[in-house]
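User: Predict the complex with XIL.
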Amino acid sequence: INAEVLASDQRYAAIAATEFNSVTAENAMKWESVEPAQGEYDWGQADELVEFAMKNDQAVRGHTQVWHSQMPTWLTAGIKDGDFSRAEVRAIMKNHVVQVTKHFKGKIRQWDVVNEAFNDSGTERHSLWREYLGKDYIANVFRWAHEADPEAKLFYNDFGIEGINPKSDAVYDLLKKLRAGEVPVEGVGLQAHLGTQHPFPDGYEENLKRFADLGLEISLTEVDVRIELPLTSAKVATQTSHYKAILKGCLAVPACNYITLWGFDDRNSWMPGWFDGEGSATPFDAKY
Ligand code: XIL
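Assistant: Here is the predicted structure with XIL placed in the model:
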């Protein structure tokens, strides 16, 4: 859910209120949104979304705490300028995870805690997190979040890990290791940003099953299927088939029990802003 649109467009709000039993903030819970200046929290939009969800009997999925993107400038610029010591950065990051988790304690039952920590090749992404929190940062982040809200289900979330490939292998290995070490991670989020120019991810159902066999819950967290414009009936048919396959595979594996669309309409979707010349990725068109 886009918080600005929710506040200003009644038709959008009406669909959001009635067509879904769970909502997720597109941006409102990200670090740059909740702590725009160091130590000054702005929960406004995020709290409005939580209130909206409660009013409509909806769950709220939390997104996201630890990501290399959409961090506040005071932090990224501060680090670049050498304003913070290593220990300070670590304390700032821990504080962030604890504050955010605590703020929504009891209101958010599922959290995409760590987002996009791997490269497509399966190597670790060299983010600030990796650099300043050290090799065990993912395990530590889950421990901090769990301590802050022991009831919340904590997820590792990434894109391009729907099928079997080097990246999903790496995520699988990590989660297996974390589970074996009793790190409190309970689920894996597959973003599922698909495109009709690409074949449907290879080995999707098998992949879901191997994560399920680790005892993990599986969520599809950011589903959309973009099309290289202009539309043709062949491309729309491929889109239908991708949507169908992503849903069918999830329904076939009991551990896969949560589906979130990354925007429900083509008027407000992050397409085409992020993928030049692509769009029409969601179930509702630009006229809702
Ligand atoms: C995107 C939002 O949709 C945009 O509005 C924002 O400008 C950038 O981020 N993976 C994620 C999401 O986990 O948080 C991203 O959301 C899309 C990719």
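Strands lie at 22-24, 59-66, 108-115, 153-158, 187-190, 193-195, 217-228, 256-261, 278-279.
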